[in-house]
Amino acid sequence: MSTATLDLTAITAAATEAAKVTAAASDAERASWLTAVADALDANVTELVAIADSETSLGTVRLTGEVARTSGQLRLFAKVITEGSYLEAVIDHADPTSAPPKPDLRRILRPIGPVAVFSASNFPFAFSVAGGDTASALAVGCPVVVKAHSGHIRLSERTAEIVSEALAKAGAPDGIFALVSGREAGTALVQDPAIKAVGFTGSIPGGRALFDLANSRPEPIPFYGELGSLNPVVITADALAERGQQLAAGLAGSFTMGAGQFCTKPGLVFIPAGTDFAAHLAEASKDKPTAAMLTERIAEAYPDGLRNVADQPGVAVVSGTVQQDSLADGAAPVVFSTSAANVLERPEELLEECFGPTTLLIEYANQDELAAALAKVPGSLTGTVHAQPGEDVSALVEQLSGLAGRVLFDGWPTGVAVNWAQQHGGPYPATTSLFTSVGATAVRRFQRPVAYQDAPETVLHPALHDSNPLGIPRRVDGVLTLG
Amino acid sequence: MSTATLDLTAITAAATEAAKVTAAASDAERASWLTAVADALDANVTELVAIADSETSLGTVRLTGEVARTSGQLRLFAKVITEGSYLEAVIDHADPTSAPPKPDLRRILRPIGPVAVFSASNFPFAFSVAGGDTASALAVGCPVVVKAHSGHIRLSERTAEIVSEALAKAGAPDGIFALVSGREAGTALVQDPAIKAVGFTGSIPGGRALFDLANSRPEPIPFYGELGSLNPVVITADALAERGQQLAAGLAGSFTMGAGQFCTKPGLVFIPAGTDFAAHLAEASKDKPTAAMLTERIAEAYPDGLRNVADQPGVAVVSGTVQQDSLADGAAPVVFSTSAANVLERPEELLEECFGPTTLLIEYANQDELAAALAKVPGSLTGTVHAQPGEDVSALVEQLSGLAGRVLFDGWPTGVAVNWAQQHGGPYPATTSLFTSVGATAVRRFQRPVAYQDAPETVLHPALHDSNPLGIPRRVDGVLTLG
Fold first, then answer.
1. Residue A420 touches chain B, beta carbons under 8 Å
2. Are B339 and B211 members of one domain?
């Protein structure tokens, strides 16, 4: 299926019309739309999971959990907008005594307009048609046009039908939601003047190309891309000595989860030199089953990626087979190891994401070498520390805070909680913005501040009325109030 | 003066070192640095204003006021960081009962790193060396490298000396602040890997070139540019009938203020067709004195801009002289008029910013024509409505909200209050981001969220400790608390 340009223009024109209605809708109305979509997904979970599994091979357990996460996410955003802080309502009353006199000024965040959402291959629900980007854009009053991922077209279409029907039944306006597919439709979408922001989850080359396109428009628009991440893990000598086997088991579970196709897969693991951790990890990884990859293209890229690492001088294969050219067998886990000194010598070759069940152990001789090698790691979604209680890891935490959006302790980065505190985004290339694509604050990507000066109350959003009829948190004359 | 590349590398390396100290400094410390700079500016106001006047011809009254605004701005940001909301501290405690179990997650905004600030020509204090961009970056812990504007180099250097000395005396680290000058230094700054964000105030061509440069870096960085704005004003028939002369006087004062070199100058004024407003405005404008322009380049561009408008079919000169080629006499006010129908016919030619004391009256035949012509106006910093009490202007306000960052009622857009509710930014080309460059929330441009998962309290920022030792507003388990 491919969406012709004429269709696209009609779709984005309808989105522009819908934007007027969605911007004027109350938070309660928009919350009810999100809840309706969540209920509809849950009601159709069996059918949706069956389609998804046939297209992605991710398995019904994982996929059923992902539907729950997706509907839960929609419900969280309903809660977020009902709570009202997301409007960032600020009132500064006039001050005629100041020099110069200050006018009455009231600021609120408004929806940015129609948003294009590019679905991911690896989360056919949570980062796809009705995923976090769609949910956060709809929540704040932005119509959404989703570009389906070619890896799960039937699921995308069926999900879109369910979403559209639920929205219509709940009273949302025509044009609030549409699905397009095909590469040209995606490119045209990013260039369409009606589109005011883009959410994207995918590869670095694909994402960068669209990022460049969004920025080269006559009117550039924000491009919120999540592109790629190595997710470094650091294990201290003390932690390794105390619980090496347990750490190996945890790591094996994390890097092979979902056939290593998580954006938070731990791809680099820094360990002290001269330990038996590699052997433990080889042992823990050897029984991990092979798994079918999401798409043929991803399956083909995996052995290429493995060879790229294996071909580098100073790299050893700890476990698994680099030659995996029979796609029919699925992807098998491979663990590599090298030294931090070698990473310092060829950072570009060794610090490249390889999508699939593989990870690279990096042995560091001392703290300085660890810090130097970590400094070469590109921006990541996560950074993880495994240390013993009482160890001083403050310098390491500070360094990880500079290169990642989420810093974990004694855990594994796969698995992303959807809540108020989540930050799923980090320095480029992890993401292309200072925002998160998961969790409550994801809505801020699709909002634009507007201040009203000396406005009659009749034209103001209720959030800015003096009496605070919505009862929401606001800042009034510099003081935060709970409403 | 021009800054050699070698110097620049040393400067940004020092900024990177300083960033570690500024990020670790407490809010109280950083607030004291800002206050020290504010005090130093105020203490040197006479000397600074004298230099500024000799370089910009803006006059001592205006410039003295601008110093007060600039030091007041520094003090506002000291207040903002002391209040603590700007950290957006969020704590979600672990929930082992949820499926999957939720970890303890705590999110905070951290400084993005060294920031490059490009000064503006038209506000030698408030949007320059120690202006809003610098103040907001320093406030949140980002070192600043300022690119001086060539229109007031001596002032920039003297201000930088005062700022550097005040920061050093107050205990701020070496490398926290530097000044560079010359076009090549500016270009190199935007491309320097140590620079993590850019603040810019200037022209559309210059700003767009740097925006493109920032986005084409191997690691793109946010470019917060304020580029150009037409600031449309709409006057209703009722308002005109009731107080036409008063409106003409107000408009004449606003469009000629500072020789029309304000980014919020009302450049387009929509009025009902067939009134005597143009005559009133001609009368009100005729005695406005000529004024020297900020720089030779701006002075030379003004008559060119006037001719561009005058040469369009359907444009009449209401008052003033288009031929102003004797720069020695200064710039004289010129008022043009045309019809909304003509704007619809040649929007690109007529809807272009002309820096200087000129404005274009646009006569609309009816509301539909007004709406259609307004729809052609590019993104603006402000949009203004003059209406009578009780008139239904909701559709107009909605339209202006879509094209501007600040919507004013019965006032004039020149003059920008510095407070919590201010929004100085609008859709492109007014600005290149969803943020403001004036007011409390300007700090958010230079902050990056980081979440800490299951972290021991010893490595966490005090804002994220359970006991809330800083006593600041936070969101805990979804509930906003005042601290």
1. yes
2. no
* Residues A188, A258 within the same domain: no
Q: What residue ranges in A340-399 does DSSP mark as E strands?
A: 358-364, 380-386
What was the ipTM of the complex prediction?
A: 0.97
* Chain A nearest C-alpha distance from B408 (Å): 5
* CA gap B130, A311 in Å, rounded: 53
We report the CATH number of the domain holding residue B331 as 3.40.309.10
Per-residue pLDDT of chain A (483 residues; tens, 9 = 90+): 345 555 999 999 999 999 999 999 999 999 999 999 999 999 999 999 999 999 999 999 999 999 999 999 999 999 999 999 999 999 999 999 987 899 999 999 999 999 999 999 999 999 999 999 999 999 999 999 999 999 999 999 999 999 999 999 999 999 999 999 999 999 999 999 999 999 999 999 999 999 999 999 999 999 999 999 999 999 999 999 999 999 999 999 999 998 999 999 999 999 999 999 999 999 999 888 888 888 888 888 999 999 999 999 999 999 999 998 766 678 999 999 999 999 999 999 999 999 999 999 999 999 999 999 999 999 999 999 999 999 999 999 999 999 999 999 999 999 899 999 999 999 999 999 999 999 999 999 999 999 999 999 999 999 999 999 999 999 999 999 998
CB contacts of A450 in chain B (<8 Å) are 401, 404-407, 423
Residues B212 and B236 in one domain: no
Looking at the complex, does the CB of residue B376 fall below 8 Å from at least one CB of chain A? no
How distant is the alpha carbon of residue A357 from its chain centre?
Answer: 20
Q: Which of A226, A353, A363, A369 is catalytic?
A: A226
Read out DSSP for B444-466? GGGEEEEEEES--GGGS-GGGST
Are B214 and B249 in a shared domain?
Answer: no
Count of domains for chain A: 2
**Which one of A110, A393, A407 would you mutate to disrupt binding with B, by most B Cβ within 10 Å of its Cβ?**
A407
What HEC string does B192-239 produce?
CCCCCEEEEECCHHHHHHHHHHHHHCCCCCCEEEECCCCCEEEECHHH
Residues of chain A with Cβ-Cβ distance to B480 below 8 Å are: 83, 85, 473, 482
CB of A408 less than 8 A from some CB of B: yes
Q: Which of B28, B6, B81, B117 is nearest to B14 (CA)?
A: B6
